[in-house]
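YM 10:42: STAS domain-containing protein sequence, as discussed on the call
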Amino acid sequence: MSAPEPVRLLPTAAVPQQAAPRLDVYPLTGRSGFRAVGEVSLPTRDRWERALERVVREAGDVGGEDVYYLELSAVTFVDVAGAGALADTAKNLGGGCRLVLDRPPDSLPRILGLLWPGLPGIEVSTS
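YM 10:58: structure's back
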């Protein structure tokens, strides 16, 4: 019996690491609300929830307006927990205030409609 031949490791191409998910939030100019860029998932949920907490605080101070805009055209993904935080925010708005989701990812209105049907306080704008 001969000794097994040693295994030679061949060099492999470097496997690129995916960047960690990001979520950036910027105040809107000219109207009450914020613009979000990135994705809402476990690594970014704290930032999303802090932004939504600010919505509840500021909603009473929007100067007579009853609308708070969330410009979401640059958001690529919102997980179910992020949609739940949004639904909770809508429930916590007082005085007839409403959230207008401006161009959210296609899945977000579907998730909201499926899990929180008929939720008052959220309007989706696709234009």
